[in-house]
Give the backbone structure.
Amino acid sequence: MSTDGNNSQKALSHINEQGQVNMVDVGNKPITDRQAKAIGYVVVQPETLVLIQQGLMKKGDVLTVAQIAGIMAAKQTSSLIPLCHPLPLNKIDVQLELQTSKSRIMVTSTASTSSRTGVEMEALTAVSIACLTLYDMCKGVDHKIQIDHVRLLQKTGGQSGDIFLEQ
């Protein structure tokens, strides 16, 4: 794949000229402050949300465990995602909010680093694992759980500039 003058097609950064897997060399890139925010939702039955709110889930404090799992996952991103650079995280914040009107839990994460490459994968990994942890902790009482719309909301810093997507 080549890049044309309109930038409508960009080369895949993890594939070299021979079509082989390639970890991107970021050694010449400047160290900059970078931040990324991701979001995802876990949709549950209304009865399940009540159990979570009241702290009555058999497996314990579902929200705190999911929050810790998300933080731990962000710190392990380079071990989980092939070709992902290990990053020194300045901060990883994972928040969970019960949205009773939609019978779901909104999970957001914000990751920041001072590095040569972006921190989007860490933010997305934190949300994904927090959502999976919620699923695991609630599956015994709810067989209709759905994980929805995990995605990047924004990223700042780096050569591509700032990107803000819809919430």
Residues 1-8 have pLDDT under 50 and may be disordered. The first strand starts at residue 32 and ends at 43. The radius of gyration is 18 Å. Helices lie at 46-53, 62-75, 77-80, 120-138.
